[in-house]
Give the backbone structure.
Amino acid sequence: MKPMPAVQPGWEIFCRVVDNYGDAGVCWRLARALAAEYGVNVRLWVDDWKALFKLCPLATRDGVRVAGVELRRWTDPFPVEGPADVVIEAFGCNLPEGYVMAAKERPPIWINLEYLSAEGWVAGCHKLSSPHPELPLVKTFIFPGFTEGTGGLILERGLLDRRDRLLRTQSRADWLRSFLKGPLREDALVVSLFGYEPFGLAELLHRWEKEGRPVLLLVPEGRSLAKVEAALGANLPVGEEMQRGALHVASLPFTDQDGYDALLWHCDLNLVRGEDSFARAQWAARPFVWNIYPQKDDAHFVKLDAFLALYCAGLQEAAADALTAFWRAWNGRGDTAKYWPAFARALPELESHAQSWCATLATRENLVTTLWQFVDKLG
Ligand code: TRH
């Protein structure tokens, strides 16, 4: 690669929050990684600061710099300040019209960062360009993904070493003791739950109440916590715990992204959702279950099945079947309580599979380098 120029080109990332935290979560993570790893001068525009503030409590005012990133409020009308050299439009969020008009005077490298998918067509569309119908501007589509020929996932430099170091230096028992009030069962299966309103959650909780092996369920505040409370017929304010048979449930405050990573790293099983927590569960190298973002007409099952087909390659048939049945039930097709025993039996195999999956993914190009190299080649 060429040496980095002394003055870095300016980058701008545009993020419109459609729902929840994933849109802002991906953009904030990417912005920080570009700034930290390539010295990129990056400005992040976000329209919903409530979402950003939740992920980054230092986002207290427009223009504040956090972790080398200038955080800006994307307001309407938009305060056009002249386009940067590189513009990332996240998830087809549509750049402000005035900004695009100004960009025609000095066309930037314009990238549309797409949603993550394991579908087969992704590699064929990665890096395709499309000219603007009227203006002398070209937009290139960057697709994150899991296979060669896609843009990869965000993998911050040194992340996996940090994970391993933390797990070497902080035992799970110590970590749990730092926030749990209730008794600690060393033999418990420790599960994190960050989902939407997963189908079959109540059935699964009732099944866990009667399990031979105790289950410790850690639930960050949010949508799934409300579902847990409804299923167990009790209030569980943040920071509180309850015991039901073999099931111990603790509700946790929402942390920053590093804190959420640590939670994933320490758990035996992670129930995740959306796009970013789904990707982070893979870097945690632990068994996980994906509560996919639901779409109209069950269109999300195409994405779910595409990922399952990739992920199950290399698993023994019984483990692949158990994983597939449980994941589909968690997303509304099947009975979670019925499929739990086979899934639980498969956990040791799923644990080593998660490690090799993570190791293989880590050898592929990651999204941060993909973007940097794409721009570097054009520059
Ligand atoms: O919140 P999500 O459901 O987000 C998104 C959006 O809904 C988006 O519109 C949709 O297109 C996309 O999903 C598929 O789930 P996600 O993507 O996992 O994002 C959650 C973010 O919240 C992620 O960056 C991790 C972070 N997080 C914390 O920082 N601390 C926490 O305590 C928890 C629980 C999560």
